[in-house]
Specification:
- By secondary structure, the protein is an alpha+beta fold.
- About 30% of the residues lie in helices and about 30% in strands.
- About 30% of the residues are buried.
Length: about 160
């Protein structure tokens, strides 16, 4: 499965796919992508405009309360802000390929921890099962200002 870096020419389909999955991942648009492209650790695409990943490390200037939850607890980490796969491409291994890419980039940069959050309320059982298969474990929970409840997860990886 081929994974490549996100480029400005991808931002329209990434924003559309992100908007279609906003309940699970939060809002996204072209202006946000342009600004965050200077901050992300990994911005990647897989498939034919079917899946993308936006990943930050602890150095990012990013206002997400979930990102800050991890920043308050860890000096070094790679934060999976969002991995989104289109409905028509689910089950084809795109998310797994993107995560493999993230794990390798994290190892190569000397990181030993990849973290993310998953909605607890509203529930996201598919994401729960997928992350468990990848070796993530729960390290905390929070209820956000918007009323959404999340589970915080981590996967420890060995640095290269």
């Amino acid at each position: 499965m081929s994974v490549r870096g996100l480029a400005p020419g991808d931002y329209a389909w990434v924003a559309a796919l992100g908007t279609a999955n906003e309940v699970e991942t939060g809002p996204i648009d072209g202006a946000w992508l342009e600004a965050m492209s200077r901050e992300w650790f990994v911005g990647a695409a897989a498939g034919e405009s079917e899946a993308f990943a936006i990943i930050f490390d602890q150095t990012a200037n990013y206002g997400s309360p979930n990102f800050h939850w991890f920043r308050e607890r860890y000096q070094h980490f790679v934060y999976v802000d969002r991995i989104v796969v289109s409905a028509r491409a689910r089950g084809k291994g795109l998310a797994r390929a993107l995560y493999s890419h993230v794990f390798e980039a994290a190892r190569a940069a000397g990181h030993s921890r990849v973290v993310c959050e998953i909605n607890f309320d509203p529930p996201n059982p598919g994401s729960d099962a997928f992350h468990a298969k990848l070796g993530f474990s729960e390290i905390g929970r929070a209820t956000l200002a918007n009323g959404k409840s999340v589970r915080y997860l981590e996967r420890l990886i060995g640095a290269i």
